[in-house]
Write a structure and sequence with these properties.
2 copies of one chain form a homodimer.
Chain A (H helix, E strand, L loop, with lengths): L4 E5 L5 H10 L3 E5 L4 H7 L1 E5 L4 E3 L3 E3 L8 E6 L9 H8 E9 L6 H9 L4 E14 L2 E14 L11 H12 L4 E4 L2 H21 L4 H6 L1 H20 L6 H13 L6 H7 L6 H14 L5 H15 L12
Parallel strand pairs in A: 1-2, 1-6, 2-5, 3-9, 6-7, 7-8, 9-10
Antiparallel strand pairs in A: 3-4, 8-9
Helix pairs in contact in A: 6-8, 6-10, 6-11, 6-12, 8-11, 11-12
Chain lengths: 320, 320
């Protein structure tokens, strides 16, 4: 099991950080890159972390998945806006008994991955981390770091704690990464949306950091009413999010350092926004379950417009 | 009746244009100004209009209401964000048998005016005009121009077509201004909100002109769903807005030249936004009548934030 080889698809703020942690702990890690390929091949990866800076002068960097060996764990850490690439990437790099670990934001991505590799080979993960890519091959890890892991099956039936979850947990813990195992992936994903929908969404529409969004009275009302709609969406999917979870998330956000959300960073960087994964898919899943979420629906259309007419966009993005 | 003297409170895009039309037709018009007082006293008013340019080299300009004579018709054409001034302005300038004509956007303003001058001395008017103040004493009239007039009584009971409405109609028609008389002020005000809430609101939040808002697919959905909520709000207040009215308004907007809404102009100019009159009051009136309008509620909070942290604001506004 310690022989497990990992592929990191998308070597940015998430994939770069966790992949570097795994390699530092002795795992065989293969990094797929695009715009940063030359730099990383030459200079490796540099991690500036609250937990201690470190550098990997040599990493196995690839720009074409065809050159990569088969891997037992394939970490999907692209932006979801790049997921149209997955049908080409995954079959090429995933070992026959390998598993895909989806470390992306939003809802419904595991379904897409399952369509490509099969429904029994997907695990979902949610990263609770503040990290940014600050240059080619350079990641700054600002705060937090745990990954919530849960196993996937088509239809999102809760699978409980499976042996393969525990195997991934062992590897990541060996690499110093805190892991929380969850029995119900869909519940865990909806819970993460309680934060992601209001804060990612409003940060872009209102050009604001987390501190203004949580402390301004009007924004607070908007945030709380959007959170209430996420809870209703989850309930429509038979997932109960306790009141206390929501209030705790508000308190946690009050204590956060002022922070630009990932969607706001993408917006300011002129990159495509993860609107469909984070807002569109939950909206559609709730609608299919009979719940209408009018505020999230308005926010969705607003974000589509922000994305389409993003004044920061010119030339190519550099999402990973 | 032709002797009626008019006061214009707020000599900007609305008050400057209609007041100038009245004076040109021979009425005795008194203009209250603030920042433009010196220029207008010296140079009068200049109207660049699609209906023909004209200039009034001399007008009766005031900067203090105490110096104005009592007037039979007092036209309130301030921004609603200046309405805290009305308790000082109106009693000083309104003749004993005079009437106040509220030419402002939004809902509930007549109630505020009635509290000051009495419930039997207020008439409401809605201007369907594209005009901008382009300099001190200079108004550019781009398109349209009719005023919808309806009489007011506390509780907004429909009063039908009253003699004083017809008297104002005669004066304004003499001045070349098209007048539409309405029997039900509250219905007329809700109808105007069908346009004002989505277009004023979204133009600020999304930094967009009318053409993008009406032609972009996502914006169009946002616009239409906000309009549907306005219709529900009106219905809660026992006012029925027909389906055909809404679809006709969409078609009209498609044909408009790309246009910056008044709220967007205020935003870009760093002036306070008319959020309470145009969005907050309708929301509260609907809530009191038992209707929740979630999308308008989110838009309201967003606009409050846009207003509070307007990056264009520095120093003093120049709203009239």
């Amino acid at each position: 099991m310690a022989e497990r080889r990992y592929a990191i698809l998308g070597t940015g703020a998430i994939g770069g950080f966790y992949g570097a942690c795994l390699q530092r702990a002795g795992f065989d890690v293969r990094f797929l890159l695009r715009s940063d390929y030359e730099t990383v091949r030459r200079e490796g990866l540099t991690i500036e972390s609250v937990g201690g800076d470190f550098r990997l002068p040599r990493v196995n960097a690839y720009r074409d998945v065809a050159e990569m060996p088969k891997c037992d764990g394939v970490v999907v850490a692209l932006k979801t806006t790049q997921n149209h690439l997955l049908p080409k990437l995954l079959p090429s790099v995933l070992a026959d008994d390998g598993v895909v670990l989806v470390l992306q934001n939003g809802l419904g991505i595991e379904d897409e991955v399952a369509d490509i590799v099969g429904g029994d080979r997907v695990v979902g993960g949610m990263c609770f981390i503040c990290s940014n890519k600050v240059g080619p091959g350079r990641v700054r890890h600002l705060d937090y770091g745990p990954i919530a892991l849960a196993d996937y099956t088509p239809g999102y039936e809760p699978l409980g704690i499976t042996p393969r979850l525990e195997a991934i947990e062992r590897d990541f813990q060996t690499a110093g990464i805190e892991i929380q195992l969850h029995e119900d992936l869909l519940l865990a994903r909806w819970k993460k949306l309680v934060w992601n929908i209001p804060f990612n969404g409003l940060s872009v529409v209102l050009d604001a950091k987390t501190d203004r969004l949580i402390f301004d009275g009007d924004s607070r009302q908007a945030v709380e009413s959007l959170m209430a709609e996420v809870v209703r969406g989850a309930a429509a999917c038979d997932r109960e999010i306790p009141e206390a979870f929501v209030s705790n998330m508000l308190v946690t956000t009050e204590k956060m350092k002022p922070y630009l959300t990932s969607m706001k960073l993408d917006y300011d960087g002129g990159r495509p926004l993860e609107v469909e994964a984070i807002v569109g898919n939950p909206l559609r899943m709730a609608a299919e379950a009979g719940a209408s979420l009018p505020k999230i629906e308005l926010l969705y259309h607003q974000l589509k417009i922000c994305d389409r007419y993003n004044p920061h966009r010119e030339g190519l993005g550099d999402s990973c």
